[in-house]
Design goal:
The complex is a heterodimer of chains A (about 350) and B (about 210). Chain A is an alpha+beta fold. Chain A folds into two domains: about 80 residues, no CATH class; about 250 residues, Oxidoreductase, molybdopterin-binding domain (Sulfite Oxidase, Chain A, domain 2), CATH 3.90.420. In chain A, about 20% of the residues lie in helices and about 20% in strands. Chain A contains nine helices and 13 strands. Chain A is globular and about 50 Å long. Chain A starts with about 20 loop residues before the first helix and ends in a 13-residue tail after the last helix. Chain B is globular and about 55 Å long. The longest helix of chain B is centred in the last third of the chain and has 36 residues. Chain B is an all-alpha fold and about 210 residues long. Chain B has one domain. In chain B, helix 3 crosses helix 5. Classes of the chains: A alpha+beta (about 350), B mainly alpha (about 210).
């Protein structure tokens, strides 16, 4: 167990794996209190620092794990508990080559990831204790290769490539993100689905000890998403393992997440632990939460409005206070690649 | 409470009430309004509109519960600051969010329930702000009080606006609803109990 003491002035050498989980930490706190040492203040300040640094410029220390209830000395020293790690050997592609990227800072501090809290700034702060490695993904259901593979094996199923995609959130904002990943199709081919596999269900991690958000029933945990087989096989569909040439930060869905750029962002299941091939259309978390608001397809469609948000236009993150709105395009501008899959489908009904 | 004390309290209110705006200006100046600055300013000005509105509505229950009356004189100032933040809120929406694209704005208002109630709440605050001066009070006589009871409707619409805008986690709007329910409930409770005691004393007199 790591306990911050006065003799340990430079905690830069602490590995992420060395940080004690919350329960252990709290027990330790009780122990320290009982022992009557002066260690409690420094132990707390370490927590606060962790929350602060990961939060970067965002306001408010972690509400859920970084309980800053002590007047802790806040040094501006960068302690990187989740070091950024470069991905070696991926190829650049022409996808989105002409797009202006959303800054790394914005991509990693403005996140919808309810497993780490419902505030946009929460995930960057609350995901510090989440461990994306070691990691396994269980391939299940209607496949010949129903087995569990680890993240390293998964990353070798196909050559990794960088793809710059627009991401449109159902809440009316958008980003441009340089993902690194592999086509989901390569995993599907490897898994050899049977004739009964009509849909794929993606199940995300659900660990209350490192994901404070799942302790409250905001959604029916674990987070579940799904795709129809042709959508899953579409060349645009990506299993992302990185952004900006680096392994995914925890708050962006490490170690592996789904990216479907023609659909609203919530379709992109994060921290995937199970990929299940099924015959029937999966009931996704958001469909359960609000069937009249969130459909299975969730294709970006400026003509079908959401009860809360205008879908005809969007705010591009990074354009600032006076940036105005941009028109939202059908299928988020990917009609050419995906439009044919929905030919003849009433998109007002199947939203 | 002496007049000069009220003046001091009012100065403090001025100072406190301008702080949220000062904070936004400061954060804006330092390019620190988060990744989605427009949403941040919208949220912030909306939050402070509600907070000041609930503070205004707290003055009467304080009188009812404690018997202290001097704070009633703060209602106008607080109410006007509520209006001030409501104006900032709607300006942010019309200008920074929608760049005065009236067709889009009209569509947004008509189509989305939370925008309708919010917009309605704002429209209702306008007559209250316009009649908040002494001469209007004198001219309107007894109907002034009736008009200003609109604040209850505005408060309910305001909380509803917040509730409906939230995607899933209604914890925050729930707290506002709870406070509002208490403030309105206290009024109803005291109104009823004074009525009861009034009829009670009437009976005593008849005997």
């Amino acid at each position: 167990m790591i306990i911050s003491t006065k003799s340990r002035q430079n905690p830069a050498d602490i590995q992420p794996s060395e940080i004690s989980p919350r329960e252990v930490f709290e027990n330790r706190r009780t122990f320290i209190k009982a022992a009557g040492t002066g260690l409690i203040a420094s132990a707390l300040s370490m927590k606060v620092k962790a929350a602060q640094i990961v939060g970067g410029e965002t306001k408010g220390a972690g509400v859920l794990i970084g309980r800053a209830n002590a007047p802790a000395p806040l040094e501006k020293k960068v302690v990187n508990y989740n070091p950024r790690q470069k991905i070696n050997g991926y190829t650049k592609t022409t996808y989105g080559a002409d797009e202006k990227l959303t800054s790394y800072e914005n991509v990693t501090t403005y996140n919808n990831y309810y497993e780490f809290g419902t505030g946009k700034g929460d995930p960057a702060i609350e995901a510090v204790l989440f461990k994306p490695r070691p990691w396994t993904v269980s391939i299940e259901g209607e496949v010949k290769k129903a087995k569990t593979i680890n993240i390293e094996e998964l990353m070798k199923l196909a050559p990794l490539e960088e793809r710059i995609y627009r991401m449109r959130c159902v809440e009316g904002w958008s980003m441009v993100i340089p993902w690194v990943g592999l086509p989901l199709a390569s995993l599907i081919k490897w898994a050899e689905p049977t004739g009964n596999a009509k849909y794929i269900e993606f199940i995300s991690a659900n660990d209350p000890s490192t994901m404070p958000g799942v302790r409250s029933p905001v959604l029916d945990w674990p987070y579940i998403e799904g795709l129809r087989m042709d959508e899953a096989l579409n060349p645009l569909t990506l299993l992302a393992v990185g952004i900006y040439g680096e392994l995914l930060p925890n708050q962006n869905g490490a170690p592996v997440r789904l990216v479907t750029p023609w659909k609203y962002g919530f379709k992109g299941a994060k921290a995937i632990v199970k990929i299940r091939f099924v015959e029937k259309m999966p009931l996704t978390s958001w469909m359960k939460a609000g069937p009249s608001e969130y459909g299975f397809f969730a294709n970006v469609n400026p003509e079908v409005d959401h009860p809360r948000w205008t879908q005809s236009s969007e705010k591009r993150i990074g354009n600032g206070l006076f940036g105005g709105r941009i028109k939202t395009k059908m299928f988020n501008g990917y009609s050419e690649q995906v439009g044919q899959m929905y030919a003849g489908l009433d998109l007002k009904k199947y939203f | 409470m002496k007049k000069q004390h009220i003046l001091i309290v009012k100065s403090v209110i001025w100072l406190l009430a301008l702080m949220p705006l000062a904070r936004l200006v400061w954060l804006g100046y330092n390019d620190d309004l988060t990744a989605n600055p427009v949403e941040f300013v919208e949220r912030s000005t909306g939050t402070w509109t509600l907070v000041i509105l609930l503070t205004t509505l707290a003055m009467t229950p304080i009188r009812l519960i404690t018997g202290i009356v001097w704070q009633i004189q703060l209602r106008r100032l607080l109410g006007l600051f509520m209006f001030f933040y409501a104006c900032l809120h709607i300006t942010t929406y019309l200008w920074l969010d929608y760049s005065f694209l009236w067709a889009d704005i009209a569509k947004d208002i008509i189509k989305h329930p939370y925008v309708i109630v919010g917009f309605l709440a704002f429209v209702l605050t306008i007559p209250l702000a316009l009649t908040s001066n002494n001469s209007a009070m004198r001219r309107l006589k007894s109907s002034w009080k009736k008009l200003h009871q609109l604040v209850y409707v505005i408060a309910i619409l305001g909380v509803l606006h917040f509730w409906w805008l939230v995607k899933k986690d209604v914890t925050e709007p729930f707290y506002y609803a709870l406070v509002l329910a208490f403030l309105l409930g206290a009024r109803l409770y005291y109104k009823r109990s004074t009525k009861l005691s009034a009829t009670g004393s009437a009976q005593v007199q008849a005997n």
